[in-house]
Amino acid sequence: MNNQKVGILGGGQLGRMMIEAASRLNLSVTILDSPTDSPAKQIESTQQHIQGAFNDPAKIRELASQVDVLTVEIEHVDADVLAELETSSKIRVCPSAFTVKTIQDKYNQKQYLESFGIPVSAYVDTPDVESVKRAGEQFGYPFMLKSKTMAYDGKGNYVVDSPQKVEAAVAALSKTPLYAEKWAPFVKELAVMVVRRANGEVRSYPVVETIHKNSICHLVIAPAQIDGAVAKKAQSIAENAIKAFTGAGIFGVEMFVMENGEILLNEIAPRPHNSGHYTIEACDTSQYENHMRAILDMSLGSTAMKVPASIMVNILGSDSDMQACYKPCQEALTVEGATIHLYGKKECRAGRKMGHITLVGESMMQVQRNLAPILQAIEPDIQ
Ligand code: ATP
Ligand code: MG
Ligand code: MG
C-alpha cells in the first residue's frame, strides 16, 4: 500500500501494537531495541531488526540508513541525533525532532504550552534545595516535585507534603534536573488521543477518563462519563495543544478536570498512549493505525467510537509471578465483549505493564458489570 519503510525507536508493547496495525496494511516496520525478543520484534519476522539501545546514536543512524520514516514508541530518545538526521538525510522523523525534544523535558513542555495559551498547573524551576523550599512557600503543601526528564509511571514524581520533606524529595529524585508543580486537586483525570498530519490537520478521539493506582494507569473509561461541555473543552484544549507542535503522528494528551470544570493539561506523550489502547476494539480506526497513516502521509481514518461504551484495564506484573497475570485473562475468556492483549514480556516485575484487557458493550453499565469478575481476579482482596 505504501513503499516507504518505517523504523521505530523502541520495541515494547506500543511498538508491538503499531506492528499489528502496520501488518494489516502490508507496511514494513523495523525495530531498534536491545532485546532480540522484545514485544514488537516477536511478531514481525519479515524484517532484520536492529539490536541496540534506542537512544544509542550509532544504532539510530544504522536504523535510519535502512528506512524512509523514523518514529518513536518512547520519548526518552536522543533528540539531537533525530535533529541531525532530519537535516542531513532524506529521512522523515515523526512527529519531529523539535517536538520530541520539547516534550521529553516536562519543564520545557510546560513553557512551550503556556506560550500557546494552553492552561497548565503553576510551576517553577527548582535548580537547588533552596528553590524547592521557596516553591513550597509559593504553592503551599502538598506540591509535586517532578523530574524534568526520563519520567514514566510517576517514577520521577515526589509529593512534598511538608517543608521537612524537601530534602528527602530532592535526594529521591537526584538523577535528573527538577521542577516544582502546584498541586492540582482534580476530580477526574482525562485523556484525549490526537492524530496530526504533517500539514497540521488534526483529528481527536473521544475524551476518556483515566484512573491511576500508585501513579500507574489502571483503568480507562471511554467515553468519559462527564458533562458534555467539559468534554468539549477538553477536546479543544487537546487539539490546540497538538496543533502547536510540528510533525505527523499520534499524541496522548493527559489532563486534570477541577471541581469547577476548569481543565489543566498535565502532560503530552508524542506517541501512542496507554489511554488509547481501547481504540483498537472501540473505534473505527485505532490509534496505532492512525499513527501509521499519519507518518506515511496517508488519509486519516475516523476516530469515532463504534460501540457505545468501553473500559480498558491494565494487567500489571506482580513480583515475578506470571500466573497472577493470567488469572484476569482466564476470567476474560468467559466475559462478553472482552479482548485480551498480552505483550509477550518474558520477565514479570511488580508494576510492569504485561498486558491489557479491553471490554466493549452496549452501555457503560453493561461494561462495568462485565468488568467486575476481571477486577476481582486482579485484586481478590479489594473487590
Ligand atoms: P506517565 O506514565 O503518564 O508518563 P509520568 O511519570 O510522566 O506518568 P505524570 O503524568 O506527571 O507522571 O504524573 C503521574 C500522576 O501523578 C498523574 O497522572 C496524576 O495522577 C498525578 N499528578 C501529576 N501531577 C500532579 C499535580 N500537579 N497535582 C496532583 N496530582 C498530580
Ligand atoms: Mg509522562
Ligand atoms: Mg502522565
Number of E strands: 18
Shape: globular
First and last CA, distance: 48 Å
Largest sheet: 9 strands, antiparallel
Name the hetero compounds present. adenosine-5'-triphosphate, magnesium ion
Number of helices: 13
- Beta content: 25-35%
| Helix content range | 25-40%
Poorly predicted regions: none
What class would the helix/strand composition place it in?
A: alpha+beta
What is the radius of gyration?
20 Å
Q: Look at the structure and give the mean pLDDT.
A: 96
3D structure, described in words:
- With 383 residues, this protein is an alpha+beta fold.
- It has 13 helices and 18 strands.
- The chain has helices spanning 13-24, 39-42, 57-64, 79-88, 97-104, 106-115, 129-139, 166-172, 228-243, 279-282, 287-295, 322-332, 364-378, and strands at 6-9, 29-33, 50-51, 69-72, 92-94, 123-125, 143-147, 157-160, 178-182, 188-196, 202-204, 208-213, 216-222, 249-257, 263-269, 309-316, 338-342, 353-361.
- The strands form three sheets. Strands 10, 11, 12, 13, 14, 15, 16, 17 and 18 form a nine-stranded antiparallel beta sheet that branches. It has a five-stranded parallel beta sheet with strand order 3-2-1-4-5, sandwiched between helices. A four-stranded antiparallel beta sheet has the order 6-9-7-8, sandwiched between helices.
- A hairpin with a 5-residue loop joins strand 14 and strand 15.
- Helix 1 (13-24) crosses helix 11 (287-295), helix 4 runs antiparallel to helix 5 (97-104) and helix 12 runs antiparallel to helix 13.
- The longest helix has 16 residues, at 228-243.
- It starts with 5 loop residues before the first strand and ends in a 5-residue tail after the last helix.
- The relative contact order is 0.11.
- One magnesium ion is lined by residues 151-152, 267.
- One magnesium ion binds at residues 151-152, 267.
